[in-house]
C-alpha cells in the first residue's frame, strides 16, 4: 500500500531523549501524496505537526495537531479542489511488555486509542496519516450545490445549467411501462 511508504525520521521519538514531557514541532516536506479511501490526494502544503508527549508510569500520552492542505476531486463534477486540514489527535502508547497485565475487558475498552510499542521508540507516522485521512470528507464537494456531470454525455452541469441531452435512454425492460405512462398522461 502506498501510505506504508510514507516515512519521516522526525516522527520517530526516542523515549530516552526526554525526562517527563516533550513538545515538538515537526514540518514534513517530503510527502507528496497520501492515499485516501477514494483517491490519491496531492499534499499541497508542508504538513505541520505539533506534538506533545508525556511519560507516565507505564504509558506515554500523545496529543498533537496537524495542519496541511491537500488537493481532492469533487465527487460530483470531478474538478480539483483544495481542502485545508486542521485536526487534532491523541493516543496512548504502552510498552508491549505491559499488554499481558491487562485483562481482556481492559484491552477491548482501550482498543480505539491504545497503541503498543516495542523497545524505546515511538513512531508517530501512522497517527499522522490516520489523522489526515479521517479529516478529509467522505464525499468532497467543490460547493454544496454542485450539479455534477450529465449522466448521458458527461458535460459539467455547473457550467451549462440549461443543458438537456437530446437522447433519452430507456432501459428496454421498461419500454412498455413508459408507453402506458405516456398513454395515461395523454388521456
List the helices and strands and how they pair.
Layout: E1 12-14, E2 21-28, E3 33-35, E4 40-43, E5 47-55, E6 59-73, E7 80-95, H1 104-109, E8 114-117, E9 121-123, H2 125-135, H3 175-186
Parallel strand pairs: 7-8
Antiparallel strand pairs: 1-9, 2-5, 3-4, 4-6, 5-6, 6-7
Q: Helical percent range?
A: 10-25%
**How much of the residues is beta strand, in percent?**
25-35%
Query: How many E strands?
Result: 9
**Which consecutive residue ranges, at least 5 long each, have pLDDT under 50?**
none
List keywords for this structure.
elongated; seven-stranded mixed beta sheet; 3 helices; 9 strands; two-stranded antiparallel ribbon; 2 domains; single chain; 187 residues
Molecular structure report:
The protein is elongated. The mean pLDDT is 87. It folds into two domains: 2-135, no CATH class; 148-187, no CATH class. The protein has helices at 104-109, 125-135, 175-186, and strands spanning 12-14, 21-28, 33-35, 40-43, 47-55, 59-73, 80-95, 114-117, 121-123. Strands 2, 3, 4, 5, 6, 7 and 8 form a seven-stranded mixed sheet that branches. A two-stranded antiparallel ribbon has the order 1-9. The protein has three helices and nine strands, in the order βββββββαββαα. It is α+β, with helices and mostly antiparallel strands and 187 residues long. It comes from Petrotoga mobilis (strain DSM 10674 / SJ95). InterPro entries: YceD. Pfam families: YceD. This is DUF177 domain-containing protein.
Quick take:
The chain is of the alpha+beta class and 187 residues long. The protein has three helices and nine strands, in the order βββββββαββαα. It starts with 11 loop residues before the first strand and ends with a helix.
Amino acid at each position: 500500500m502506498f501510505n506504508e511508504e510514507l516515512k519521516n525520521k522526525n516522527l520517530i521519538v526516542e523515549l530516552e531523549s526526554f525526562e517527563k514531557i516533550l513538545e515538538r514541532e515537526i514540518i514534513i516536506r517530503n510527502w507528496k501524496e497520501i492515499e485516501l479511501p477514494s483517491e490519491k490526494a496531492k499534499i499541497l502544503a508542508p504538513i505541520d505537526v505539533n506534538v506533545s508527549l508525556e511519560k507516565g508510569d507505564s504509558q506515554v500520552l500523545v496529543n498533537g495537531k496537524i495542519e496541511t492542505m491537500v488537493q481532492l476531486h469533487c465527487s460530483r463534477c470531478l474538478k480539483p479542489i483544495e481542502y485545508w486540514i486542521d485536526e487534532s489527535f491523541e493516543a496512548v502508547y504502552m510498552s508491549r511488555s505491559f499488554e499481558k497485565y491487562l485483562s481482556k475487558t481492559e484491552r477491548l475498552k482501550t482498543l480505539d486509542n491504545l497503541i503498543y510499542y516495542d523497545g524505546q521508540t515511538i513512531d508517530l507516522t501512522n497517527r499522522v496519516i490516520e489523522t489526515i485521512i479521517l479529516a478529509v470528507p467522505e464525499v468532497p464537494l467543490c460547493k454544496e450545490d454542485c450539479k455534477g456531470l450529465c449522466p448521458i454525455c458527461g458535460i459539467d452541469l455547473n457550467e451549462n445549467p440549461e443543458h438537456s441531452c437530446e437522447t433519452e435512454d430507456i432501459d428496454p425492460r421498461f419500454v412498455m411501462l413508459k408507453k402506458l405512462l405516456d398513454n395515461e398522461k395523454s388521456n
